[in-house]
Amino acid sequence: MTVALTRRPVLRLIPRPLLFGGILIGLSLVLAVFPAVFAPYDPIAFDYNALLAPPSRAHLMGTDNFGRDVLSRVIHAFTIDMQIAFFGTVFPFVIGTLVGALVGYAGGTADAVFGRVVDAVITFPFLVLVIAIVSVLGPGLVNMYIALGVVGWVFYARIIASEIKIQKRLDYADAGRAMGYTPMRIIFRHLLPNAITPGIVYLMTDMALAILLGSSLGYLGLGAQPPTAEWGVQIAEGKNFMSTAWWISVFPGIAIVLTGLGFSLIGDGMAELLRTRK
Amino acid sequence: MMERREILLSAENVSKNFAFPRSLTQRLTGKPAVAVHALNGVSFDLHRGETLGIVGESGCGKSTLARCLVRLHDCDEGRIMFEGRDVAALKGTERRQFNARVQMIFQDPYSSLNPRMRVRQILAEALGVHKMKPKAQIPARIAELLDLVRLPADAADKYPHEFSGGQRQRIGIARALAVEPEVLVADELVSALDVSVQAQVVNLLLQLQEQLHLTVVFVAHDLRLVRHISHRVAVMYLGKIVELGQTEALFTAPRHPYTKVLLDAAPELDPARRSKTVAVKGELPSPVNLPTGCLFNTRCPHAFNRCFTDRPVLTARDPDHLAACHLTDFGLPFQNELTA
After folding, report:
1. Do the Cβ atoms of B123 and B174 come closer than 8 Å?
2. Residue A6 placed within a domain
3. What is the CA radius of gyration of chain A?
4. Above pLDDT 70, what percent of chain B?
5. pLDDT for B270-304, tens place per residue?
6. For chain B, first and last CA: distance in Å?
7. What is the ipTM of this complex?
8. Residue range of the domain that includes A111
């Protein structure tokens, strides 16, 4: 009885989705940081004695057309794909939050101009715009981050600006003004902590999207470059062997699904946890 | 009594409009801006140490006036003078000093406190920004402020959502007092609270006023409350002060017909004292299209020709009891003249 009483609040504090999402992403991070510890083989070493080998004891996820161990490649790809999840979203998040907070607070002309910029960006399909920018800059991960930063910030800015517009009308913002606080203090110390929750929730979803996008660009040859192990690249490499060696594409696909799910669950859990108490 | 006469803050013919946003096409076709006339030439003096009650129906501009007094709004016309200086001209350090000396308490205790800051942070921020105390003394001062508003010391480490409405309003008062203001503008201080809690908070304000020699502007729609705590009362109608006088004189012998109907409309428990007169007729006119002449002419039972052409100004023979009504020109207090 006492055990139940003491344990219950702790369990209640962590929303279920956050718990499961945390486990998935926690494991992903461990694999991303120490891939060599878990990978049984060198991810780029060719083995001509085991070309297109199906899953077996020696190769749990089989091998590809160069005899590379798919499991080792999937594990090593965590390093790249978790990086994509982070760098593909952190710049849009930071830039978008800053711009959104300032524009939302200023309102008026700044907001009107900002609204048109947002309209202009979202008129283009996201992927097409990113592909266009990467094509101009040249393929590679750094250019992909730049492209994501250029396009992605508007989504965060829009979310944060609309939240700031709600918060700035509340009395505590007026109380700050009546206290003689500077606009910067009111925006960043008072309004933003109350406005950022949907931004953080979106950030988590966006990390899942960034991995998918990174994989898509890898698949198209615009992101990570072969022979680097990256899930999108691996799926692309396996597409010619789908009917004979399904494992080359399917296992990286499962990895994408699981990490994407992990981030989404964390996003859901955060939404629950960060909800303002009334 | 002499002390009361020192003018600390005054409004001089203050007007404030809020324009409706115009669409691009409206702007291009040159459609004139439509505006709500929230304040239409408000003038009054606030004497040091007094409590000035401001009453009126909702939408009469009470809150706008309160916000203009603390410079949350800038006036469109007229000016607000603090110790003989136009507050709109204050910049930088002077402006911050003005903010510290004229503080505001807000109506809604649920939105006036940042939900993500502990009480300690809320108070420490005010103390820190205005450099009220050296860093080492801030915790002691916070404890002192909480004691001042009768909150337990452990309140400092809680978040606003852990308090009731009345307690939150006390935190709002403590925040305002942190910067040691001389003038406290209380906008509907207790209207969001349960009746049982209202008295506690109002009495706290009265005690604090005495203890700290505060000058208070008490904005409310509750006549009985205003009568209870104010030395003088200003009655507002459609963004204008229609009557301003000593509390008892104004409540017992109103000089403006609007004040009269307002007082008659107040519910009375004692049947013997219940008013026989009819409550004020009609709706408050739209503050977008103000009536010409006297603003009250659409509802006034005594309106005559002049009321539809000239707007009366706030005047009186007795400088302690002003009214903006043409009838006062006849010399006698309005009530004796016209009710029988």
Report:
1. yes
2. no
3. 23
4. 91
5. 777 666 555 566 777 888 888 888 888 888 888 88
6. 35
7. 0.86
8. 16-44+59-274
Residue A8 lies in a domain: no
Contact between chains at A189 and B95 (C-beta distance less than 8 A): no
**Both structure tokens of B60:** 């009469």
Mutate to test the interface with A, among B71, B97, B111 (most CBs of A within 10 A): B111
Peptide bond into A227 cis (omega under 30): yes
For residue A49 the two structure tokens come to: 């004695």
> Contact B72/A178, CB-based, under 8 Å?
yes
Q: Rounded to 10 degrees, what is the CA torsion of B251, B257, B260, B261? A: -150
Distance in angstroms (rounded) separating the CA atoms of residues A255 and A238: 15
Note down pLDDT in tens along chain A; length 278 residues: 444 444 555 666 778 889 999 999 999 999 999 998 998 888 888 888 878 888 888 888 988 888 899 999 999 999 999 999 999 999 999 999 999 999 999 988 999 999 999 999 888 888 888 899 999 999 888 999 999 999 999 999 999 999 999 999 999 999 999 999 999 999 999 999 999 999 998 998 898 889 888 888 888 888 888 788 899 888 888 888 989 999 999 999 999 999 999 999 998 888 888 775 54
B124–A contact, CB cutoff 8 A: no
> Is residue B52 within a helix (H) or strand (E), and if so which, with residue range?
strand B51-55
CATH number at residue A188: 1.10.3720.10
Of B72, B114, B126, the CB nearest to A177: B72
- Tell if the CB–CB gap between B161 and A278 is shorter than 8 Å: yes
- Least Cα separation, residue B112 to chain A (angstroms): 4
CA distance B201 to B178: 17
- Rounded to the nearest 5°, which phi and psi values hold at B243? -155, 140
Token pair recorded at residue B174: 């403590």
Q: Does B92 touch chain A (CB under 8 A)?
A: no
CATH of the domain at B293: 3.40.50.300
3-state helix, strand, coil in chain A (%, to 5): 75, 0, 25
Element of type H or E holding B116: none
Given a cut of 50, is residue B338 above it in pLDDT?
A: no
Domain count, chain B: 1
Q: What's the domain count of chain A? A: 1
Residues B89-123 as b or e (16 or more Cβ within 10 Å = b):
ebeeeeebebbbbbbbbbbbbbbbbbbbbbbbbbb
Mean pLDDT score, B170-180: 96
